[in-house]
Each structure stands twice: as structure tokens, then as C-alpha cells.
Amino acid sequence: MPAITEPARLILASQSPRRKELLAQIGLYPDDIIPADINETPLKNELPIKLAARLASEKASFVSLKAPDDWVLAADTVVACGRRVLGKPENISEAERFLKLLSGRRHRVISGVCLITPQTKKIIKTITTAVKFKSFSNEELENYLMTEEWNGKAGGYAIQGYAGTFVKWISGSYSNVVGLPLFETTGMLRGAGYQWKFKNSSGRSE
């Protein structure tokens, strides 16, 4: 009898709970989550859009080596003010500096999304959303810092949380700012041949 071939799995190459939650919104539950252990330090003079694409590509490649017969989806989100990249603040002082820089200004949130298919085809896209914060007072800033919502967030804020009150306007994908542009990601998956039916959290098809 011929060997039974298991269907290719979908691996999310990210430990971000926000990306997992965003995929769940569209009924997509990865078969496994394998964080990619890579150096995320920007290269000298590397533009934010190039950084986002490179890190997403490197994350996907890292995990694809562990799961060469599966679909691998990776993403990296960069907050940029001009050419300056605002990463995840290491402490409250750095978060304060980031937020003071963003106060009253427009900035960009750029996501690199990379998909590697079971045939090892690599697809990379970058998506940019423009966000403008209102000018906030010292009291508002201090109150936000006390929430610790900035911890582990690129740019020092989470738009889906209290920082949403700072957003004067947004142009582009909201889910991109949260951590994964759903419209573009689903287009990449379907365009590459990955199909799924909407499932609820119990795994049952709707």
C-alpha cells in the first residue's frame, strides 16, 4: 500500500499573542507555533521598510528549516518616526522617550509578512499604515506608562489598548498596527494555495 501523506501544517513563526489572536479572528488556528530565534538588530543605515521585510524573511527561513514540508508564516512589525526605528522599549525611561517623540506627530507602522510554502516558495510583502497621535499632556503620559501596556510593544504602545485614545487619525490597515495585516496576509495564503474553512475556537467549522 502507498504511504499515507500527512497534509502540510501551518506554522506560525512568532511568539506574539496578538498575531495568534488576529488569526483566530478569521478562524485560522496554526497547527504549531515556533518562535524564531534571530538577531533583530537593525543593520547600519537600514531603512525601516527594509528592516521589516528582512526580519520577517529571516524568521520564516529559520523556522522553515525545522519544518521544511509545512507552510510557515512569519511577520515583523516596525514603528518608524522618519528614518528612526522605535523598537520595543527596554525600560520605562525608553518608553517615555519614544512616546514623547510620537506625541502630536505622524509616524508609520510597517509590517513585513513572509510566507514559505511546502514547495519552499518564499513570498514577502510589506504593508505600511500611517498613524498620528494627538499631543498628550505629561499627566496622560505618566498614566499610560503606569499601565505598563508599553512593555514588549514596538514603539512603546498598543493601539488596541489604552493608547487608542491617543490616535487622532489612522490611514491604512488597523490590524497591521496591532501586529498582522489580515487583508494582505489572507491574500498571500489563498494566492499561494493555502485554503481553510472558518473555524471557531473549539475547532468546529462554522
Give the overall form. Answer: globular
Instruction: List unreliable stretches of 5+ residues.
Output: 1-5
By DSSP, the count of extended strands is 7
CATH class: Alpha Beta
Mean pLDDT: 91
In DSSP terms (H or I, runs of 4 or more residues), the helix count works out at 6
Gyration radius (Cα, Å) is 18 Å
**Total discrete domains:** 1
- Amount of beta strand: 15-25%
Characterize the biggest β-sheet: 7 strands, mixed
CATH architecture: Alpha-Beta Complex
Gap between N and C termini: 35 Å
Please name the CATH topology.
Maf protein
Structural class: alpha/beta
Helix content: 25-40%
Q: What's the helix-strand series?
A: EHEHEEHEEHEHH
Describe the structure.
The chain is α/β, with parallel strands linked by helices. The chain has one domain (10-191): Maf protein, CATH 3.90.950. 30% of the residues lie in helices and 23% in strands. The chain contains 6 helices and 7 strands. The protein has helices at 17-25, 48-64, 92-102, 138-147, 174-178, 182-191, and strands at residues 10-12, 32-33, 71-81, 84-86, 106-116, 122-133, 167-171. Strands 1, 2, 3, 4, 5, 6 and 7 form a 7-stranded mixed β-sheet that branches. A hairpin with a 2-residue loop joins β3 (71-81) and β4 (84-86). The longest helix has 17 residues, at 48-64. The radius of gyration is 18 Å and the shape is globular.
